[in-house]
UniProtKB/TrEMBL annotation:
Residues 1-26 are annotated as: Disordered. This is Anti-sigma factor NepR domain-containing protein. Residues 27-57 form the Anti-sigma factor NepR domain. Residues 1-25 have a biased composition (Basic and acidic residues). It holds the Pfam family NepR. It comes from Algimonas arctica.
Length: 57
């Protein structure tokens, strides 16, 4: 009889995201920080700036 690996062990080894030793929470935190930085550094569209100028009047 052949011993089958546990399903959880099989998934971890075959996981495409198993490229670093960082804990998952650290990966998520780093990705969220990067996303936030990207959004903060985006230019404000001219249409939105025009709308804000109209709202100030």
């Amino acid at each position: 009889m052949t011993k089958k690996p546990k399903p959880s062990e099989d998934r971890v080894e075959a996981s495409p995201d198993h490229f670093s030793d960082k804990p998952l929470t650290e990966k998520i935190g780093n990705n969220l920080k990067q996303l936030y930085d990207d959004v903060v550094n985006e230019e404000i569209p001219d249409d939105f700036l025009s709308l804000l100028a109209k709202a100030d009047k």
